[in-house]
Amino acid sequence: MNKKLKNLIILVMGLMVISALGYYALQENIRKSLSFFWSNDYYFIVYFSLIAGFVIIFLKLFNKFKVKNDALKIIHGLIFLPAVVLPLFKCYFKVPYIFCRACPRKCPWGELVPFIVPGFLVLNLDRRFWCFKLCPLGSLQDYQRRVSRKRICLPAWMKNIRYVFLLFTIIVVVLLLLGSETFENVFFVGTYGLVLGTAVVAMVIFLLAFFIPRFWCNYFCPVGCVGDLALKAEKLGDKFKKIAS
Amino acid sequence: MGEEENNPAEKLLNKKISRREFLKYSFIGIGGLATAAYGYNHLFGRSSGSLPDIFPASAPDELWKWSKEALYYKQVGENVQCELCPHECSLAPDDRGICRTRVNKEGKLYSLAYGNPCSAHVDPIEKKPLFHFLPSSSIFSIATAGCNLRCLNCQNWQISQFQPEETNNFDLMPGNVVRAAVQNNCKSIAYTYSEPIIFYEYMYDTSRIARAQGLKNVMVTAGYINEKPFRDLCKVIDAANIDLKGISEKTYNELNGATLEPVLDCLKIAKEEKLWFEITNLVVPTWTDNLDMIRDMCQWLHKNGFDEHPVHFSRFSPMYKLTHLPPTPVNLLGEARKVAMDEGLKYVYIGNVPGTDAENTYCPKCGKVVIGRRGYIITENNLSNGSCRFCGYKIAGVFQE
Question: Is B45 on the interface with A (CB under 8 A)?
Fold first, then answer.
């Protein structure tokens, strides 16, 4: 099959899955319509998929693992997609993903975040393994780039925006750990629903990802940012080693 | 060399990696194990909901004068098993129960909440809230410290989430409670504020004395009590306000530190025992504000024959561990009231919202105002021998002594 056609099919199927999730998520009683994703069964599947990621790293290390990247991306992408995408459709806070500690009624992301985010960060120590092989948002953007010919170049300094997001995320997490309620109240929407600002920003990022490679990953994502810093540290180590030798 | 190439095991063992790679993969391995362990504990190691636990080795060295041997427990060797509420705490010597008031001393269970209320006040009866029981009368209200629930939104947490030894208490034995009620011209005594189940023996004894002197007894409770103690209690109390905090087991676990079924049973038992009671549901944003859940609750009440029992939808105020939530929107309370009335409940009120027409009692037949209220004040009373003055429909409740 033509490679471009294959990528297009995968992209369209991914978008159909996201649309279906979005349709049911926007129903009034999301926990009824998508109850599977609030169940321990789904959480166990995510848990074991995350552990599988670690196992794959060590199997690769000993050259014992040869699976096509596409297969890895699709399988892990589908497993993690509901947890990653649902907060975009419904959240109690104006900025999703980071206020889970203060959230009164957690979604699948909120239930899983205590161990999956540390898991992502550790997986990224191996040349951003999570970002490039497993992350559903990263995979989606990869397929978006593959089907589009046009490209928009942004100035290099704009990549520093992700450090601002990383700093914001760290501040929020620390303040929530310290029990700051004033900070939560600023971002608390009051109802579990679609936040227009979040939806608009997500749509813009999605559309620009057709033209800017990994737009979310390179310019916003805090997990990717930490992974990138780890990669830079590793390269710096190589540099020092070269100088020393 | 050739032998190594043919032998995968040899190849594996002799694979060279740099020091940096070794360190990196060690970190990844340790991080992976830690993530696996933490994730395992997070998912598999969780106990059911957020049910509270006993306080080990927390009894006082000696019992104080405000102690009484508990009525409902069994001895299991030197341990005791309380049988008052569904927690059924199993206590070793010197342990304290979840309610904070019951302790095991030398193989016997004692209540430390007897004759030592931390709150004593005269209130209008509408405050309980009781709208269909001796309206516009005064009620002498008492409470001790302690509670067998852990509601995140507790309005009285400064007394409910503390032990009796930690609060400033009056010395008011049962006889003196009744005397004080009479002196304050109160027709009834309310066991309220915290959770009266936890001072069961005090409530029971006071109720018997009050009845003998012609006073009524009212219990304001979350209804988390076992069947036998509650049936015995129904013989000495005259009315109750029972909280039905929702119809979801998960909400009861996480918001209140309890379970749902015993509360539903309590409502059924109260009906069987012909106890007059009214039901309160606190509408907490993001927890119990879902109209589908409210509809389910009202359908359950209708199906089980509670149409004639008033339901109060109360407005939540940010308190205790839920100060980050906003107060309940007033229009949502109105919608909840509409849902309840559509499901067949006849007397539905909105609480903690002064000045609303939903505080009035309307005749289910002709729709006219039978009892008008502004806050706790009765503005008009169109009852005649407990019936609507306009159409003669019998209004459910106890309107005369």
Answer: no
Q: Is A242 part of the contact surface with chain B (CB cutoff 8 Å)? A: no
Say how many domains are in chain A: 1
Return d(Cα B282, Cα B352) in angstroms, integer: 10
Residues of A within 8 A of B285 (CB-CB) are: 190-191
B31, B285, B326: residue with CB nearest A122: B31
Lowest mean pLDDT among A92-96, A160-164, B62-66, B331-335: A92-96
Interface test with B, best of A43, A55, A61 (most B CBs within 10 A): A61
CB contact under 8 A, A115 and B322: no
Q: State which residue of chain B sits closest to A187, comparing Cα positions.
A: B324
Domain that holds residue B210: 119-359
Do B163 and B302 belong to one domain? yes
Q: What is the mean pLDDT of residues B271-299?
A: 94
Same domain, B154 and B183: yes
β pairing state of B73-76 and B79-82: antiparallel
Question: Could you tell me if B388 and B352 lie in one domain?
Answer: no
Question: Which two tokens mark B242?
Answer: 């029972």
B210 plus B234 within the same structural domain = yes
**Dihedral through CA B58, CA B320, CA B251, CA A35, nearest 10?**
-120
A27 touches chain B (CB under 8 A): no
Distance separating alpha carbons of residues B289 and B314, to the nearest angstrom: 11
Q: Is B290 on the interface with A (CB under 8 A)?
A: yes
Using one digit for the tens of pLDDT, what is the confidence trace for B38-56?
888 877 765 444 678 888 7
B215 in the same domain as B349: yes
Q: For position B138, which CATH number holds?
A: 3.20.20.70
Q: Please name the member of B25, B42, B326 whose beta carbon is closest to the beta carbon of A115.
A: B42
Distance of residue B21 Cα from the nearest chain A Cα, in angstroms: 10
In a domain, B75, yes or no: no
Nearest-CA residue of chain A relative to B32? A54
A15 CA to chain B: closest CA distance, Å? 29
Chain A touched by B28 (CB under 8 Å): yes
Q: pLDDT value at position B1?
A: 44
**Angle separating helix axes A40-61 and A69-89, nearest 10 degrees:** 140
Output the pLDDT for position A36: 85
Residues B238 and B375 in one domain: no
Question: Do the Cβ atoms of A125 and B28 come within 8 Å?
Answer: yes
Cβ contacts (< 8 Å) between A176 and chain B: which residues?
none
* Domain with A8 in it: 3-244
Backbone angles phi, psi at B49, to 5 degrees: 55, -140
Give yes or no: residues B191 and B339 share one domain. yes
Tell me if B209 is assigned to some domain: yes
Q: Are residues B253 and B378 in the same domain?
A: no
Cβ-defined contact of B42 to A102 (cutoff 8 Å): no
Tally of CA atoms within 13 A in the half-sphere of A171 that contains its CB: 8
| Residue B87 lies inside a defined structural domain of this protein | no
Q: Is B385 exposed, middle or buried (0-12, 13-18, 19+ CB in 10 A)?
A: exposed
Total residues found in chain B within this entry: 401
Report the candidate in B106, B234, B127 with the shortest Cα–Cα distance to residue B186: B127
Tens-digit pLDDT profile for residues B108-155:
999 999 999 999 999 999 999 999 999 999 999 999 999 999 999 999
Chain A residues with CB under 8 Å of B25 CB are 57-58, 61, 126
Q: For chain B, what is the domain count?
A: 2
pLDDT in the model for residue A189? 77
Q: Is residue B104 part of a domain?
A: no
